[in-house]
Amino acid sequence: MRIAITANGPGEFAGWVRPLTAALRARDPSAEIHVLCVPDDFATGGEAAYIERTVPGVHAYPPSAYLRLALGRPVEGLPARVDRVQYLGGDLAHAVRVHARLGGEATTYKFSRKAYAATFARAFAVDEANRAQLEAWKTPPERIRVIGNLAIDGALGEASGAYGDAPSDAARDGIVLFPGSRRHEIANLLPMFVRVALNLRRMLPGVPIAFAGSPFVDDGELRDALARGGDNPLAYGAAAQFDGGEIVADGARFPLVRAAMGAASRARLAIAIPGTKVIELAALGVPTVVCTPFNAPELVVIGGPMQYVGKLPAIGPLVKRAAVLAVASRFRFFAQPNIDADRELDPEIAGTLLPSQVAHVAAERWADAAWCRATGAELRARYAHHAGAAERMAAFLLESPRP
Questions:
Q1: Shortest CA distance to 286 belongs to which of 363, 186, 378?
Q2: What CATH number does the domain containing 251 carry?
Q3: What is the pTM for the complete model shown?
């Protein structure tokens, strides 16, 4: 069996590609798995190396290789034909293009379009609400299979050491901060989170505080972002250094843990921006203070034409700022667990945020141990049924394609 997978950024690779490819390899070690990184504003450039390192036996290709394939040119190591093409992130058009070049049966996860209703032989859904979305995109109901959220398996696997990571007590019964893993997040939000950590250290002097470090971000990027912290519009003057695996600022040292879910599983509370990590933390039973800063919305990376409009001289940032704020105003919640529950489980704070404000909310929540236990248990129970999604999806993909 030969399977080609298309995917884009760090969230998709850690949350979707990693657990699925690990399940495929475990179920059928003889299966050939080829992962194509597609061009995307959210990508870091380290995705191909990451998945090959994390799941041995997987073959991964950078966006430049995908572009060669899309233009009809051969790619070294990539077979001329495959049995399946599975979409796991990025623009759906890339998966359709790979399917046109490599043949096989095309399948998708979570997303589709009316234009591709006849293209995808099967659509894997996260839940019943996602099934309804897929049907609205004209996916025939008989082609839809609800298998669960792959990101849950990714989080549980990392927390248990399934991907070879050593356990970490860096934040045991303390607080772990997730400033993001994309380049613009590291550049613009990491310094702000350093200031949050410094405030927390003053408020909770004996509590362990650690940073979640993305495996997609190298030490050089971290050092640059921390050194520029004082000039960052979101940082409030919090310049820092990266030394010996720790973030150092104003004499305080905070460990940075690359296998963050292992550390988070032992923490009492997390602080994060909206994204995949919030639902992963929920699956571990870790309540999270979710921060959505609109201090500089023109710096946010978004999909679609507005990202390029924002790069126009002078007026571009103003137009993008207005667009981001307009879209954000439509949402009641930004954290997926709150959206799923239709009520606030994880506390959310949004707007023009001060680090002291974020730290105050986090310190208050951390001090309420009973609330942390009860909320963590409710979050864990809400996503427990998703466990095993990767195994269920792998079983479907390893079936013989339709003739």
A1: 378
A2: 3.40.50.2000
A3: 0.88
